[in-house]
Write a structure and sequence with these properties.
The protein is of the alpha/beta class. The protein is built from seven helices and 15 strands. The N and C termini lie close together (11 Å).
């Protein structure tokens, strides 16, 4: 892949906006990642400014190539439909059109968990696995990506299913573990209820666990008793950026 044609992936998170050029032949960064703190309030104008700054940092390496951007929200046809850990003013924003106008290049906007899921399917822990795969990102909230025989079911938002009268992510997200000072065993008991509910709803063939806490998977995955195989993401926190670039290239016809 010629360096001038490298797609750029940018991952908008609640605490940081991260980007890097991606070598899609190998599923790895082609240059060192740049991270900038997410601006206070995370309004569309402020976040788009930072995305433009990240894109500008890689000028010359990714000029004119497809740009994929993830957001922590449901996205349909480039329009943001929900808002998790970003300003509610994103809801109804045509993020794809605004970014394309600002940056003057093709842009694809995708849900962050969906991007991570397709990256794991293409290059990571789910590569070569048939059937129904659920990638679950455990972080500030709970994101999910569902793939069936290689096809993505977009915007599943299964972190918000109700369990025992609670929105699941308000009880089992990694941020809750930290806020409440839960031990790994205490947190695992909450994860057990969550993953058991997903098993009974969808009967998956594999769970893949992403998010930063996946680096510590040995502390909690062995505590779960599930019928479905469960394993940590191979791409860890790189999956969002890689998946964003993957989506952008596929949807642009690259």
């Amino acid at each position: 892949m010629a360096r001038s044609s490298l797609p750029l992936g940018i991952d908008i998170g609640g605490s940081g906006i991260k980007g890097a050029p991606v070598d899609l032949e190998r599923g790895v960064f082609a240059a060192e990642r740049l991270r900038i703190d997410t601006p206070e309030g995370a309004s569309p104008d402020a976040v788009i400014d930072v995305v433009a700054q990240v894109a500008g940092h890689f000028a010359g390496l990714c000029d004119g190539s497809p740009l994929g951007v993830t957001v922590p929200a449901a996205v349909t046809h480039g329009v943001v439909r929900t808002a998790a850990n970003i300003s509610s003013t994103w809801i109804g924003t045509d993020a794809q059109a605004r970014l394309q106008e600002r940056l003057g290049r093709p842009v694809t906007v995708v849900n962050d968990a969906d991007a991570a899921g397709m990256a794991e399917l293409a290059y990571g822990a789910a590569a070569g696995v048939q059937g129904t795969i659920i990638v679950v990102t455990l972080g500030t909230g709970i994101g999910t990506a569902v793939m069936v025989d290689g096809a993505l079911v977009p915007n599943t938002e299964l972190g918000h299913i109700e369990i025992n009268g609670h929105d699941a992510e308000t009880r089992a997200a990694n941020s809750i573990r930290k806020q409440e000072g839960l031990s790994w065993h205490q947190w695992a008991s909450r994860l057990q209820r969550y993953f058991s509910a997903l098993e009974n709803l969808l009967w998956p063939d594999l769970f893949v666990i992403g998010g930063g806490v996946s680096k510590k998977s040995e502390k909690f995955l062995p505590l779960l008793d599930l019928r479905t195989p469960i394993m940590p993401a191979r791409l860890l926190n790189d999956a969002g950026i890689i998946g964003a670039a993957w989506h952008a290239t596929r949807l642009s016809g690259g």
